[in-house]
User: Fold this.
Amino acid sequence: MPQRQKQKVEKDTAERWLLTYADLMNLLLILFIILYTMSNVDKQKYQQVATSLRSAFGTTATGQVIGDRGAGDAVIDLGNTNEQSTGEGGAAVSEEQQMKIVQESVMEVIRKENLQGSVDVTLQERGIVISIKEKVLFRSGSADIDIESKETIKKIGRVLLSIPGKQIRVEGHTDTDPISTSRYPDNQELSTARANSVWRILVKDVGIDPRILSATGYGEFRPKVDNDSEENKAKNRRVDITILRDAYDKSEAAVSAP
Assistant:
């Protein structure tokens, strides 16, 4: 009996490319999802920085931008650093980033007002120090501020409005040259009066909460440099506006502002 030959079955491979195509589409989908997620994070960060810089040129107490720049929520908020980061040391990192944003906002105001060399902004251990030289605000031996100088303080003050709840200290300083007038018997009185003049503008004209703002005078006792030349004396005659870090502002006020 003749043996039956087995028939060779040929597999249809004409559409195997569909498997490869489907795998490729899945990989592309995953890639686009990852890119979309990453772009959203970057967009939020860049939007935060951009809005913060715009707020340097005027904000209301609620953090909205004045004028025709549009409106939005305040983004410079140093009072909630614990909620913005987690983990050991996370709050300190978040505060450092926010401090740098505030510093850049104030520097933008200084550039716009052509005050380079007259107003310095430094990031120190205790916080951001905005140092305004005497010649920008006062005449020699006086604590009265003219209208043009008031506008400068107001523009800087609007940046401070965007960091609600942070303790801010206004500090008056002089050089070692003695002063004795019927109004100011010594440098201590003069430096305190100058700090109070700036404090009054920030509270009454800008609208900063007086519970987070204090004023004090140090006279000639906390110089930036030695009073050994007229140039150095000019550097020491100043008013500092200091935005205190969390580690330094807890003891600043007995009653915390809302």
